[in-house]
Each structure stands twice: as structure tokens, then as C-alpha cells.
Specification:
The complex is a heterodimer.
Chain A (H helix, E strand, L loop, with lengths): L3 E9 L5 E10 L4 E5 L6 H9 L6 E6 L2 E2 L10 E4 L11 H11 L4 H14 L15 H14 L4 E5 L7 H18 L2 E6 L2 H7 L2 E6 L2 E6 L1 H6 L4 H6 L6 E6 L2 H6 L8 E6 L5 E3 L9 E12 L3 E8 L4 E7 L9 E6 L5 E3 L8
Parallel strand pairs in A: 3-8, 3-9, 6-7, 7-8
Antiparallel strand pairs in A: 1-2, 1-4, 4-5, 9-10, 11-12, 12-18, 13-17, 14-15, 14-17, 15-16
Helix pairs in contact in A: 2-3, 2-4, 3-4
Chain B lengths: L11 H27 L2 E3 L6 E3 L3 H8 L1 H34 L4 H13 L2 H11 L6 H9 L10 H30 L2 H9 L4 H12 L1 H17 L2 H7 L11 H11 L3 H28 L4
Antiparallel strand pairs in B: 1-2
Helix pairs in contact in B: 1-13, 2-13, 3-7, 3-10, 4-7, 5-7, 5-11, 7-10, 8-9, 10-13, 12-13
The chains are: A alpha+beta, B mainly alpha.
Bound molecules: adenosine-5'-diphosphate and magnesium ion.
Adenosine-5'-diphosphate binds next to helix 1 of chain A.
Chain lengths: 350, 294
């Protein structure tokens, strides 16, 4: 049990790529922290620095009370699940799980007890004598999990552990990881590029972009109050509609709102729109006339792709199967409290 | 349009194979058959008369204590060469795999010895170890106080040919080990580090077992090399001497047949060697197909 603290952590790879540009945050003991961001934004690099398999260019990483910058991965008392699982191909499943305990000179019967217990929890008891190549992707993933939990480390690190699984298995495994982490109460740092995975797993969400932290917070808080347009479009699917408005336009549209003279970006989530008949906006909200381009009905909900009269493309998400037909004119309506207003450069929430 | 139409000629495939087959027949099967035939014959020293004597050449061979001595010498020599060249090459490959900067230069330097002709390498090493003139011989004598003389001392001669043979073979082994090391996913090694294994333990419990297919392949290749490809080297350095201290099986074939004129006995020896190569190759194929460990 331990908290993980990052203080202005930087990573410059030999060759000059600055993959992590000064990141600070603090994962409280027992929390499930998810770092989410597009591919190449430095998530894995950051996680690997916490694990100790990548050197830290500058800054400080603490696990519990210890500064671990100069401490070997073998001494950090952490466990990591890799994207490709990184199982030892020449060892049986049993030995894969026992390896870390043997390295720490754990007594034989204790090893046996712990491996069998982990195998029972993960339902891989029947596979203990197999080699990794004799396992399916999902089974390998479980072995990788088993190898992490038998050690009872201070911290779990996960680098996109579900990305090699098929869609169905990804969802069930996601639920299991969450349950397991809650049951064990082990501090965890989890990396993914999938916002849905991030939203469902995290106690604490860290949204990253291009080597920097964009926003930190509880998943729903981030969803409800994204700090930048990057976070606004990255979290939530389909992405938030952004309407760039210059000069006096936002003030007119929103009547009364305090918007800087140079304009603003107005964000509206597809699910916060409704399709109205007339063009009367709710008090302080917006009513945007549009022409329907395409409609997707997926059963429980429908997506309307339209072009606003002012030129922008928008997506409207409607519950059920009732939606205007392509070619029709309609009005998208959103209430005032559903509007997100950002500075023109997208870097600030107003 | 049938893509295959170009190959519709019935004989073209065979015609295309002819050059390769001809080379194999002329340079391998024909001499091999000749050797087997020759090994059943007894020829006088001037080549004037021959007699067919069935297995007498083989019987002769196995009744000579010399032949057993040569077998022992060959085993010592091959064992020494294989163990030394494999372990040194592995050590160098592990170093090269670690540090990526400057690896290019390092690799090139290590590969050079492979391009040197065996006889040239032999002369080079013999010269360095030459008791009165050689650089290394002088260091051994003046700085380390060893009475170095490979021309008289058979242990010294053996050490010298082993070292030269090892030097020639290291580059080959190095390249295969390096390729083998680079084929091991980095994440597996990292996982072991996170699992609490320090570098030495990581090497022996993860890297080394994962290299075992490469290792096995190289053991066979190195034994074949030490058995058969070191003739030029030995001839240039010691000519099998002093006495017969560095006379290996292959060198004996050459010495008895070419220098001693015993064509039948020499042919019998080469047939035995041929059987050894075939056996080694068969083992090789068997195990490479089974991928050895995992
Ligand atoms: N070993 C490396 N050497 C040089 N650059 C690297 C190395 N590993 C990653 N990078 C670069 O660092 C950036 C961040 O990579 P990474 O942390 O893997 O991103 P993510 O996991 O978020 O997709 C990328 O631009 C990538 O090209
Ligand atoms: Mg990554």
C-alpha cells in the first residue's frame, strides 16, 4: 500500500524527443488512476518511468515515502501488466506466476499457496501446466494479471492491458479488473487511449496530450466540466460539437453571457441537444437551425448528422429511434447549463 | 490469363535445376562415392597396382593406437574451440546488445576475422606466438615468465591452435547470438526486472534459456567447424606437430593421404568423417525442427 507522487517529471529520449514535458500529480493510496490520451502522448513513457524501466530525465517520482528515481525496478516493489503481456515463453503458467516470488526467496509452500489462490481467483487453475504459447489471448491476459497479483506489490501498473482482446472480452475483463482492484485495495496506475475504458475504471482521471497533463479529476467531473477543448472532444463519444464564434456572435446567441471581445468556442455534447419544432431557444440556451445530412439508428439511440445554417457540422444524439429524415430541416436546441464555453485558443474554460 | 502458362514446358524446371545438381554431383557426390570406393582398395605407394580388400583399411585404422590418440586430440581441440568461441562470442554479443551507440563500429570490428582466409589467420597467429620473434610470445616470456615454446611443448601448441581457431569463429557466433538476443522481446526482460530479478539472474533464468535454440545450432556448427574447417589453420601453424600433438582427424586424412601416400587408409578415415558430419547434420535438423526448448 502506497501513494504515488510525480513532481515535474520530464523525459527526453536520446535523439531529442521530449516525450513527457513536466508532469505532476499524486495518486492517493488505494486509488485507481487512469492516464488517458491519444497514441504517442507519452503515457507509456510515464508509466515506464514509474516502473523504473526508463530513466527519468528530471523531476522526482515517489512510491510511498521513497524517492525511487535511482532505485532499480527490481527493488521498487511494483508489478506491471504489459500490453503484449510479456509472459516468459519458456516457463509454464505456474512458473510464470511463481517467478517473482522465487526471486524474493519466498518459502516454497507459501509460493504454492499464493499461486494457487491467484489462479483460483482468475479462473486459470486448469492452465497451470501449460506454456504461454498454448493459451488464448484472454488466458494470457489473465496469467499476466496473476503474475502481478501473487506478488502483492505496493502498486499495480497497467499499460493498455485490454487492447489485444476482442470487444466482448474487453468489457468483461474491464469489469473484473475493477472488482479485483477494489478487493485488493492496491494503488493502481492504468494507461489507455480508450476514453470509455478510462471513464469506467478510474477513481482519478489524468487526461494527457502531447507530453502534458490537460486535466485531472474524477471521471464524471471531467466529463461535466472539461478544462480545455482537447479534453472536451477526447472524453465522451461521439465527441463534443465545437462551434467557433467570433466577436459579438456568442453574446447575441447566448444573450447576456459574458464573452470576451475576440469571441469564444461554444461546446455542446451530442447528447445534450434536442430536436425542436420552432426556433425558440430555451431561456439563455441556443436554437440552431440545421439540415439533416444522415441518420444512424442503432436501436437504443439515434445519431443525426447535420449541417448548421451557419456552416458547422454537428452530431445530435437522440434516445430511441425517433429522428428526422435525411434532407429535412430541423432545429437543434440546447439548454444554457449544457453549454461549455472556452477561450478561442481552446486552452481555457470560461 | 493463366499465370502458370510460363512454366508449362515439362522440362524447363529440370533444366533449371541442372546447374545446381551438376555442381553437387561433381563436387560432392562423385568425390564421396570415390572416397568410399577408394577406402576398399589397397594401392602401392607408386600407384602401380591396386587390390580390392573390403574392410581391411578400416580394420587397420582401428588397430592403430595412433588413431585413438588423434580422436582424443580432436575432441580436446573441438571441445576447447566450441566452449571458448561460444562463451566469448556470447559475452561480446551481450555487451553489444546492451549499448546501442557505437554498436556499428564494434560489430564491424568483430566481423572482420571471419573474412580472413584460414591459412592467413594461421600464419598471423603462428607469427605472433613464434617463440623468438612473436609479440605475444615475448610478453608471455618476459612479462609473465612463461617458458613459451609451441614448437616443442605440445600443450602450448594446442593452446595456440585453439586460440587461432576460436578467433576465426567468434564473429560468426557473435552475429548469431546478437540476432538471437535482439529477437527476445525487451518487455520480457523488463517484466523479469520488475519481478525482482537482478541482472545476473535475469540473464541465467530468462535470456539464456530463450537463446537455447541459437545455442544449440551454434554448438553443432562449431563442432563441425572445429572438426573440418581448421585444416588450413593447423597446417599453417603447426602442421600437426610437435609430434602429433595437434593432429586432428581431418589433418590426419590429409597427412596420411597426401603426405604419407596411404590413399586407402586416408579414404577410410574420410568416410568415417563423412558419417560423423551426416550424423551431426541429422541431429541438427531433428532438433531445429523441434525448436529445442519452448
Ligand atoms: N525508446 C524511445 N526512443 C525515442 N523516442 C521514443 C521512445 N519510446 C517512445 N518514444 C517517443 O515518445 C513519444 C511518447 O511515446 P509513448 O510514451 O510510447 O506514447 P503512448 O504510450 O502515449 O502512445 C512518442 O513520440 C514516441 O515516438
Ligand atoms: Mg503506449
Amino acid at each position: 500500500m502506497a501513494e504515488v507522487t510525480l513532481k515535474d517529471v520530464r523525459k527526453v529520449y536520446p535523439g531529442g524527443v521530449e516525450a513527457v514535458k513536466g508532469v505532476s500529480f499524486d495518486v492517493p493510496d488505494g486509488h485507481f488512476c487512469v492516464m488517458v490520451g491519444p497514441s504517442g502522448c507519452g503515457k507509456s513513457t510515464l508509466l515506464r518511468m514509474i516502473a523504473g524501466v526508463e530513466t527519468i530525465t528530471s523531476g522526482e517520482i515517489r512510491i510511498g515515502e521513497r524517492i525511487v528515481n535511482e532505485i532499480e525496478p527490481s527493488e521498487r516493489d511494483i508489478a506491471m501488466v504489459f500490453q503484449n503481456y510479456a509472459l516468459y515463453p519458456h516457463m509454464r503458467v505456474y512458473d510464470n506466476m511463481a517467478y517473482g516470488l522465487r526471486n524474493r526467496k519466498t518459502p516454497k509452500d507459501e509460493i504454492d499457496r499464493r499461486v494457487r489462490e491467484a489462479a483460483r481467483i482468475l479462473e486459470i487453475d486448469a492452465l497451470l501446466d501449460r506454456k504461454p504459447r498454448q493459451l488464448s489471448g484472454g488466458q494470457r491476459q489473465r496469467v499476466a494479471m496473476g503474475r502481478a497479483i501473487v506478488r502483492r506489490p505496493k502498486v499495480f501498473l497497467f499499460d493498455e492491458p485490454l487492447s489485444n482482446l476482442d470487444a466482448k472480452l474487453r468489457i468483461t475483463t474491464r469489469v473484473e479488473i475493477k472488482k479485483l482492484q477494489k478487493a485488493l485495495g492496491t494503488t493502481s496506475v492504468y494507461v489507455t487511449h480508450d476514453q470509455l475504458e478510462a471513464m469506467t475504471l478510474a477513481d482519478m482521471l489524468v487526461v494527457m496530450n502531447a507530453g502534458r497533463v490537460e486535466q485531472i479529476g474524477a471521471p464524471l467531473a471531467v466529463y461535466e466540466r472539461p478544462a480545455t477543448t482537447f479534453v472536451a472532444t477526447f472524453i465522451g463519444a461521439p465527441a463534443m460539437n465545437l462551434l467557433k464564434m467570433g466577436g459579438a456572435e456568442p453574446a447575441l446567441l447566448l444573450d447576456n453571457a459574458s464573452v470576451p471581445a475576440e469571441g469564444a468556442i461554444i461546446g455542446i455534447r451530442p447528447e445534450d441537444f434536442a430536436i425542436g419544432a420552432g426556433d425558440t431557444a430555451p431561456a439563455g440556451g441556443v436554437a440552431l437551425p440545421l439540415t439533416v445530412g444522415a441518420v444512424e439508428k442503432v436501436g437504443p439511440e439515434s445519431f443525426v448528422y447535420g449541417t448548421l445554417d451557419r456552416g458547422d457540422n454537428v452530431i445530435v444524439r437522440l434516445p430511441g429511434q425517433h429522428a428526422p429524415a435525411p434532407g429535412e430541416r430541423a432545429v437543434a436546441i440546447a439548454a444554457r447549463e449544457k453549454l461549455h464555453i472556452f477561450s478561442v485558443d481552446g486552452q481555457q474554460r470560461l | 490469363m493463366e499465370k502458370r502458362s510460363a512454366f508449362n514446358h515439362r522440362f524447363l524446371p529440370y533444366a533449371l535445376l541442372v546447374p545446381q545438381l551438376a555442381i553437387t554431383v561433381v563436387f560432392f557426390y562423385w568425390p564421396a562415392i570415390q572416397a568410399v570406393w577408394q577406402s576398399f582398395l589397397l594401392q602401392d605407394a607408386f600407384g602401380l597396382s591396386t587390390a580390392f580388400i573390403w574392410l581391411d583399411n578400416y580394420r587397420d585404422l582401428f588397430s592403430q593406437p595412433d588413431y585413438y590418440q588423434t580422436i582424443v586430440t580432436t575432441l580436446v581441440f573441438s571441445g576447447g574451440v566450441a566452449v571458448l568461441s561460444l562463451s566469448l562470442a556470447l559475452l561480446l554479443a551481450v555487451q553489444a546488445d546492451k549499448q546501442l551507440s557505437g554498436a556499428g563500429v564494434y560489430r564491424t570490428l568483430l566481423i572482420w576475422p571471419y573474412a580472413v582466409a584460414p591459412a592467413v589467420a594461421g600464419v598471423l597467429w603462428a607469427f605472433m606466438f613464434q617463440p623468438s620473434l612473436g609479440v605475444i610470445a615475448r610478453i608471455l616470456r618476459d612479462d609473465l615468465g612463461i617458458d613459451w615454446n609451441p614448437l616443442l611443448n605440445s600443450d602450448h601448441a594446442m593452446i595456440m591452435v585453439v586460440l587461432a581457431a576460436v578467433w576465426k569463429q567468434i564473429s560468426y557466433n557473435f552475429l548469431f547470438f546478437l540476432a538471437g538476443l535482439q529477437a527476445i522481446p525487451k518487455s520480457v526482460i523488463e517484466a523479469a526486472a520488475i519481478d525482482g530479478a537482478r541482472p545476473a539472474r535475469r540473464f541465467w533464468t530468462i535470456t539464456f534459456p530463450l537463446l537455447s535454440p541459437t545455442m544449440f545450432f551454434l554448438i553443432v556448427v562449431n563442432i563441425v567447424y572445429a572438426f573440418f574447417d581448421t585444416l588450413g589453420l593447423i597446417d599453417a601453424m603447426t602442421a600437426g606437430g610437435p609430434g602429433k600433438a595437434t593432429e586432428t582427424l581431418v589433418y590426419k586424412v590429409y597427412a596420411d593421404g597426401r603426405l604419407g601416400g596411404d590413399l586407402g587408409g586416408s579414404a577410410a578415415q574420410s568416410v568415417i568423417l563423412m558419417i560423423i558430419v551426416i550424423a551431426l547434420t541429422a541431429i541438427q535438423f531433428r532438433y531445429v525442427e523441434k525448436k529445442v526448448t519452448y
